[in-house]
Design brief:
The complex is a heterodimer of chains A (about 350) and B (about 240). With about 350 residues, chain A is mainly alpha-helical. Chain A is built from twelve helices and four strands. In chain A, the strands form two sheets. Chain A has a two-stranded antiparallel sheet. A two-stranded antiparallel ribbon of chain A has the order 2-3. The longest helix of chain A has about 30 residues. Chain A is globular. Chain B has ten helices and ten strands. In chain B, a hairpin with a 2-residue loop joins strand 4 and strand 5. The C terminus of chain B is likely disordered. The chains are: A mainly alpha (about 350), B alpha/beta (about 240). Chains A and B meet through helix 8 of A and helix 2, helix 3, helix 5, helix 6 and helix 7 of B.
Chain lengths: ~350, ~240
């Protein structure tokens, strides 16, 4: 093919279009700025903003797995909440075993106890995810209605199993010594645990972004989200990729469960299904299958929930739904729509 | 004529309630271009997808290099040396051109010498190497789709209507590229409705209608026989008007 036959040219994306593409990234600082103007007091605003970011990060941890599972596998997993609850209970058990470490004033011992609890929760929920995918999800690939029914069924079974193992009562999950209390910055009091949640959430987001952008597995996931059939035609076993992604998503939900449990300091068998409302809102706002959109959506939900709870507690009940409606009216496919092959 | 690389015998394919392929018999000799012609809905795309394992044959058998591949999973068929360029090109628009090519090199890192040859064959691949594939024009996406299929040496390439919807200049460029590819002893099974283009590069030809092969033979015989063209092409058109 000669150069003269076809002259390739690069067309620059107009500035206006570039701005609209980047606009979602500005939504979080814009909302924070609006919050500052509405709240007035910078100390209260700082406390609420950190609380909102921490809440958003924890929701992101739980939602990230769900959105990738939906994007890649086209599976609507209503049972995702089961992994959140199981993760929290496993974390509770491990932290109870390591009570000596969590009661110690040593930051290192506290951190080690939490990390072991997180690791155990992720291993158990990852394995549970394996069984869930093989037994419940695999027979209903491509059938959305059946997926909703069977994954709901899986959630109920998991909740009943929690009753069997840990009993029907809610349990108190106390934070390790080093994560209790607040740091005072001027007039603002910031809970230490919220800072930990922000750090873990941010680290997870950056790690996921790195894997998706810079590794072959990440490329396969992104390509599979768009056109799984073509990935198979290139010689890759997408079913194996499905399983890995499902297990990873389940493990992330388990991680989210431990963190959410430590945040609320109370865990119940139903905590997963309760938080799933927010998780689904975040996944829808972000664009089904989009990790970046999920991250921005989670931060928006976290910040808005905290600001409105402070400014107008009654409005807080509908604020996240209103946010979802507003975003979908602006971008009906979510913040970052994922292009799927027809 | 060389040995047959691909043999499709009595293949039936059902998609839902539709009986699309109704006993397809097709041979693809090694080392040339076999063109599969036929009207819209004749079953050409279904034939390629069935060979690739994307749809299962309910009856019949498909042999590649004398090994039965009917019932194998698509990745297994691909790893035996068959590449597929679908009608919709199957380009991953969320990925860059480089990422598309990296994924296509499924068995080893990209061979730089081969990549250089591909960039000479399709200049836009080099020009837009780091650009998002979603920003490419239709012709450039088609080039990327073919480039992806040949980034690793393949024994057989299934190409579904590579000139569909392209401007005449791009069609000529694509034809030149396929001709050069043919010179490398790669076997091509080409689905095409553009008979003028197909006749210039095809060695053998098969014509489909209603889910069956109604004619197969040497391309030159068909191009030189206006009456046969009229019979085969005319039959297809008139029968479905």
């Amino acid at each position: 093919m000669s150069e003269t036959a076809i002259k390739p040219r690069i067309e620059k994306v107009p500035l206006r279009e570039q701005f609209f593409q980047k606009l979602p990234v500005l939504l979080v600082p814009m909302l924070a700025l609006l919050g500052l103007m509405a709240i007035g007091n910078p100390a209260s605003w700082l406390t609420l903003t950190v609380a909102g970011l921490a809440m958003g990060m924890m929701i992101f941890i739980m939602a990230s797995g769900l959105t990738v599972v939906f994007g890649l596998m086209d599976v609507i997993n209503f049972g995702h909440g089961a992994f959140v609850a199981v993760g929290a209970f496993v974390g509770f058990t491990v932290l109870a075993w390591l009570a000596g470490w969590t009661a110690s004033p040593s930051v290192m011992l506290n951190l080690a106890a939490v990390l072991i609890a997180i690791l155990a929760a992720m291993v158990v929920t990852g394995l549970l995810g394996y069984a869930f995918e093989r037994v419940i999800v695999m027979p209903v690939y491509g059938e959305h209605l059946k997926q909703i029914l069977v994954t709901m069924g899986g959630l109920i079974v998991a909740q009943q199993m929690i009753y069997v193992v840990w009993g029907p009562d809610e349990l108190h999950l106390s934070r390790p010594e080093a994560f209790q209390g607040s740091i005072v910055l001027g007039e603002a009091a910031i809970e230490k645990y919220r800072l930990v949640a922000v750090a873990i959430g941010l680290a997870l987001f950056l790690a996921m972004r790195h894997i998706l952008k810079n590794t072959k597995v990440g490329l396969l996931v992104r390509a599979g989200v768009e056109n799984g059939e073509m990935v198979e035609a290139l010689g890759y076993r997408i079913r194996r990729l499905f399983l890995i992604v499902f297990m990873t998503g389940s493990a992330l939900a388990g991680l989210g469960g431990v963190m959410w449990g430590l945040y609320q300091e109370t865990i119940t068998a139903h905590m997963g299904s309760e938080i799933m409302v927010l998780v689904f809102i975040v996944v829808i706002i972000g664009g089904l299958g989009s990790v970046e959109g999920c991250f921005i959506g989670a931060l928006l939900v976290g910040l808005l929930a905290n600001y409105t709870a402070f400014l107008a507690p009654k409005v807080a009940l509908i604020s996240t739904i209103a946010l979802m409606v507003a975003i979908l009216m602006w971008r009906p496919q979510g913040i970052y729509p994922v292009v799927k092959a027809k | 004529m060389a040995d047959n690389l691909l043999t499709v015998s009595g293949v039936h394919t059902l998609i839902g309630p539709y009986h699309i392929l109704q006993g397809v018999d097709l041979v693809v000799p090694e080392g040339g271009v076999t063109v599969l012609l036929g009207r819209n809905g004749a079953g050409k795309t279904t034939t390629l997808r069935t060979i690739m394992g994307l749809w299962n044959a309910s009856q019949g058998e498909i042999r590649f290099d004398d090994h039965l591949i009917t019932g194998l999973d698509t990745p297994d068929i691909s790893r035996r040396g068959i590449a597929y360029v679908p009608e919709d090109m199957g380009v991953f628009t969320d990925l860059t051109v480089a990422e598309n090519m990296t994924l296509a090199a499924a068995n080893a890192p990209i061979d730089q010498k081969r990549l250089g040859w591909i960039k000479a064959l399709f200049p836009p691949i080099g020009t837009f190497w780091n650009a998002s594939a979603g920003t490419l024009s239709g012709g450039q996406k088609q080039m990327l789709s073919v480039a992806r299929a040949i980034i690793e040496p393949r024994r057989l390439i299934l190409i579904d209507e590579p000139t569909k919807g392209l401007a005449p200049a791009i069609i000529k460029a694509m034809t030149d590229a396929l001709r050069e590819l043919k010179e490398t002893d790669t076997t091509i099974l080409l689905v095409e409705q553009n008979f003028a283009m197909a006749s210039t590069i095809g060695d053998t030809v098969a014509v489909m209608d209603d889910g069956r092969i109604i004619h197969s033979g040497v391309m030159r015989e068909l191009t030189e026989d206006d009456a046969m063209q009229e019979k085969l092409m005319g039959l297809s058109l008139e029968a479905h008007q």
